[in-house]
Amino acid sequence: VVMSITPQKYQSAPEKITLSISNNTKETIQFGAYYEVEKSVNGKWIKQKFTDEIAFIEIMYILEPGKKETYEINLYPDMAKYETGDYRILKNILIDEENNPEYAYFSITG
Fold first, then answer.
1. Taking the model in full, what pTM does it have?
2. Rounded CA gap, 78 and 17, in Å?
3. Peptide linkage before 7 cis (omega within 30 of 0)
4. 72 touches 21 (CB < 8 A)
5. Each residue's pLDDT tens digit, 56-100
6. From CA 53, how far away is CA 59, in angstroms rounded?
7. What pLDDT, on the 0 to 100 scale, is given for residue 51?
8. Pairing relation of β-strands 85-95 and 29-32?
9. Residues 6 or more apart from 62 whose CB is under 8 A from it?
């Protein structure tokens, strides 16, 4: 599974980013709408904190082998402090009923 964000660099935190998920496995993969945003701080990935609770719809997306889909990810810049630095999106992908964390990276250059 390959996840990527296009573009990968931003001057400031956009409202939304585009996340691509490619299924390069031989299995059908599944994942929900839930994601986390993490920031690299002194070599460690720290979960981004929001001023309010964020709700996610309960849905299961299915992606067949060899397929690629794009999804909008809301960064909620009005509810989180985004500083210059490196960030990543974490999504848990189910492959053959096993949970696999996958990441896509982006930067805010300021």
1. 0.93
2. 15
3. yes
4. no
5. 999 999 999 999 999 999 999 999 999 999 999 999 999 998 999
6. 18
7. 84
8. antiparallel
9. 28, 29, 30
